[in-house]
Amino acid sequence: MSGNQQTLSTTLRQEQQLSARQLQSLELLNLPLLELEERLMQAMAANPLLEAESADDLPEPEPPAPAEAEDEANFDAEAAEADEWRDDLPLPSDNCARDDDAERREYLLNSLTDAPTLQEQLLQELALSDAPANLRRVGAEIIGGIDDSGYLRSTVPDIAMSTGEPVEVVEKALELVQGFDPPGVGCRDLPECLKLQLRRKNALTPVLEEILDHHLEEIARNHLPQLARTLRISLDELYGCLGELRKLSPFPGSALAPEHSEFVAPEVEIVKSGDGYAVHSCKGAAPRLFLAERYLKMLETPDLSGEDRAYLREKLQQARDLMRALELRQSTIVRIAEVIARTQRDFLAEGVEALHPLTMRQVGEELELHETTISRAVANKYVRTPQGIFPLKFFFSAGFTSEDGAELSNRAVMEKIRELIQKEPPAKPLSDEQLAQMLKAGGIAVARRTVAKYREALGIPSSNLRRQHI
């Protein structure tokens, strides 16, 4: 007999599964405002019982009274209206104001025009040039190898191979493209980029050319006195040369690169109220949903077909579930903002330096919510405060306890480091160890390595690179 045997067994296992309503609530809680608006528009398109009103001050309509309590004449009129509409279910909303807004929005979107890209502008300049046909053909190939920053990422031999033209022709075509706007376009490295711009301004001196060809590394390391001696010029003359270089753009194509601006809309606002702060939802933060009264009345008509009644009841339940999920989402965000308003009173009054440490676990315990729920609720959400608009996540960070017992967040410590560096003498910048000692003298014990990490997070170079030679 074979050693393999098949057996049947049963086991009991307990699992917790989320209902469809809970999953919908979590999904809406995680959505940022713009995606939420898109999701609601999709829901309204699929559910005739859902309507939205842009004005916040309009009350939500109440469901109508049962048909038995209505006047008999009105009942007959509504029954006739139901017969008229029954065959056309589902019906679009007759909200004229919303249709007008949608039409105006579509017109504005269709009226938008994109600015030409860097490659498109270069091709236009190439078409307007009086260069020979073969140079224009090679120039188009060169432009295809230029990235959005303005640098040529293809090599001359590769372009010569792909076009079948000699290297000398490719060099002439590259010189042609490098004469287009913006100045510096078509460069292959940083020195060539800066030299092209200086030549366009007739400002490329032998000293500047020597610096760009051989001494950029010394400048990056801030070895300016040694470089001045190498170039046999004074330190003031060297600073004058560096001033000319700072007027140039290391990425000539950036002026025409597509911008990726992020639209930020706060969902809640913290405002001063007496001796404390109050939290409320921002007006127009999200569309208000309500039930279409027409279909609620149709559900009360006795001669509505069973199929239509079942369809409307299904859509009515879906609409109510969505509206409950929206209310839960907004109330959760407001409750979190209320905890922030109580915890960060000093920040609201004084600014980032007074920011206190706060973790999502602490907020979750106070609101009796799980930490992951807090994380979903604050993701990509914004709040308007007396100090400006901030992401909700901004207020969550670990921190330090000073010698006097005051708690400071990491961001508050970073701001103190920034202030100390801004006040340092330019000729003798503070080292990370000196910064740590000054913070300790102020009652904040921070290790030197932590100071270095915070300084780098602020984008501030080390003391050697900050030193100004006099």
Automatic annotation (TrEMBL):
Q: Look up keyword Transferase and say if it applies.
A: yes
Keywords of the record, alphabetical order, are: DNA-binding, DNA-directed RNA polymerase, Nucleotidyltransferase, Sigma factor, Transcription, Transcription regulation, Transferase
Provide the Gene Ontology terms for cellular component: DNA-directed RNA polymerase complex
Write out the ranges of the annotated region (Disordered).
54-73, 79-98
Which first-to-last residue range defines the signal peptide? none
Describe the location of the RNA polymerase sigma factor 54 core-binding domain by residue ranges.
111-295
| Molecular-function annotations in GO | DNA binding; DNA-binding transcription activator activity; nucleotidyltransferase activity; sigma factor activity
Top-level taxon in the UniProt lineage: Bacteria
Residues in coiled coil? none
Q: Which Pfam families match?
A: Sigma54_AID, Sigma54_CBD, Sigma54_DBD
The alphabetized list of GO BP terms reads: DNA-templated transcription initiation
Taking every annotated instance into account, which residue ranges of this chain make up the domain RNA polymerase sigma factor 54 DNA-binding?
310-468
The record's family statement is: Belongs to the sigma-54 factor family.
What the entry lists under PANTHER family is as follows: RNA POLYMERASE SIGMA-54 FACTOR
Q: What is this protein called?
A: RNA polymerase factor sigma-54
The source organism is Victivallis lenta
